[in-house]
Amino acid sequence: MEIKPKVKICCISSIEEAALAIKYGASAIGLVSEMPSGPGIISDELASKIAATIPPNIASFLLTSKQNVHNIIEQQQYVGANTLQIVDCLTHGNYQDLREALPGVNLVQVIHVNDEESVTEALRVAPDVDAILLDSGNPNLAIKLLGGTGRAHDWSISRRIVELVNKPVFLAGGLNPENVRFAIEQVRPYGLDICSGVRTDNKLDEPKLKAFFEQVNSFS
To answer: What are 61-100's pLDDT values in tens digits?
Structure first.
């Protein structure tokens, strides 16, 4: 029997969108804070208001591009999400600093899958975090692409990371109702993360959301 992956609906921009995603079966909600590029960016004030409405059994992910641990701690304490999604590398401080300051908050590190180096990076950070999230993007560009590209990456590399890393792995990047079954079969991720694939004109699209969950639920 296939194992149905958990689903995180990202780029949530209102209390109503969060409720709609949860209604269809999302086990996690993504709140995107300030980023150098990409969709779904909301203020920390709005993220805090949305996070306050999310039931305790649903994970609330704060996506942060900050690289200084002190700034990340301040931001998380203000927003109140129960999970931190770190979309860039830490330059000041480390994961242990985050754990000590934010007990009970889960840490998820994004790995931008571009080549074999992504496998090495995932193996390096996995012991220090609660989960890995594999996404398309390139943090080395002049204007960093830290996710939200709407493009798929090389899923064969993602599959290898899933097999090698002893932590839950989420798959993101270009997922939609049409390709999600194939993505699950190819990668076997613990969870899926979707933004643009269930949106129309930057708004959560209920028919697309329904279609996406129908495909995912067919694995149960």
So the answer is: 999 989 999 999 999 999 999 999 998 889 999 999 999 9
Would 73 be classed as within a structural domain?
Answer: yes
Domain-located, residue 189: yes
* Residues spanned by the domain of 70: 6-217
Centre a 10 Å sphere on the Cβ of residue 113 and count the other Cβ atoms it contains. Answer: 26
Q: What is the pLDDT of residues 168-183, one digit of tens each?
A: 999 998 899 999 999 9
Does the reported pTM lie above 0.85?
yes
The alpha carbon of 125 is separated from its chain's Cα centroid by a whole number of angstroms, namely 16
Evaluate whether 107 touches 98 at the Cβ level (below 8 Å): yes
CATH code of the domain containing 104: 3.20.20.70
Confirm whether 147 is domain-assigned.
Answer: yes
Question: Residue 1 domain-assigned?
Answer: no
Distance in angstroms (rounded) separating the CA atoms of residues 146 and 110: 9
Dihedral angle computed from the Cα positions of residues 161, 56, 198 and 158, in that order, rounded to the nearest 10 degrees: 0
Compute the distance between CA of residue 119 and CA of residue 162 in angstroms, rounded to an integer.
Answer: 10
3-state helix, strand, coil in the chain (%, to 5): 35, 20, 40
Contact 28, 50 (CB under 8 A): no
Number of structural domains the chain divides into: 1
